[in-house]
Each structure stands twice: as C-alpha cells, then as structure tokens.
Amino acid sequence: MNKNDPRIEFKVHFQVNRRGRKRAVSGETPATDSPEQGRLPRVTRLMALAIRFDGLIRDGEVRDLAEVARLGHVTRARVTQVMNLLHLAPDLQEAILNLPRVEKGRETITERELRPIAALVDWRKQRLAWRLLSHSDKSTCTGAVNRHNPPKRRPLMEGMQVA
What is the pTM of this model? Predict the structure, then answer.
C-alpha cells in the first residue's frame, strides 16, 4: 500500500442489544451518561409511591386513599398496604429508598416481608426485625423456584427479642 493510494476511513463502534449480541455500527460512539445498571427494587418504588401519595393527600390534591385507589385502578386494600410502609421508622424508610439496584434475579427484600415490621409500633423492634430481615441468608431464594417444592423460609419474628 502506497502513500498515494486512495483510502477510505470511517469509524465503527459496537452496540450490544438486550440479548447480548454485538453488532458493528458505523459512526461515532454515542456519548452516554453511563446509566446505572439494574433496576430499582420494587419495594423502593413502593416506598417512594407511599411518600408521594402522602404528599398528594396533605396538599389536598387528592381527597383520601379511596380516591388514590380509584385513580390508580387498584383496591383500597392494596393502597393501604403500600401506605403502611410510612409506619416504618424514618431510618428504615431511608434504607429502603437506598437499597442497591437489582442486577438480575430476585429482589432481596419484598413489601410482603416488610408488612409485619411496619405493624410493629416500637421503632426499636422495627429496627431489630429489619436487621434480621436484611441480614438473613436468602441464598435459597435465588434462581428458579419449584412450585411443588418451594424454598422454606424462617418466620420473620422467630427468635426476636428486644431488651
């Protein structure tokens, strides 16, 4: 190849689709803000929703929880379950809002597991139950679940003692 031979140059970058396949695409690499990987845990989104609903009611934009349920096309019971997250101690609410993103598989903490904790009136007991829940070994719950032989879980309040 001589210096004087014609040459064609263009830039190429690779894109990865949802299935992990790469394909060459001509042009500059698009500038990305490097979005965070994974998804927010459902319980984090529900906690934020409860805070939002509470603000709407306080500001008078929505009359009551029944109206929230009608607008959201869910039952009043479900709205109550979500709103009961507001009964958690403020530091627990903050911890829920700051849970790490879920890369793949099951979430570590579910709203259903938080219901008995939110029902506790004493914040010290809530914090103890939260510690038990957030530090429990859930390795049996990852991967596919066999519906004929579901994983066994310890009751949340088992062995819980508060001084």
Answer: 0.66
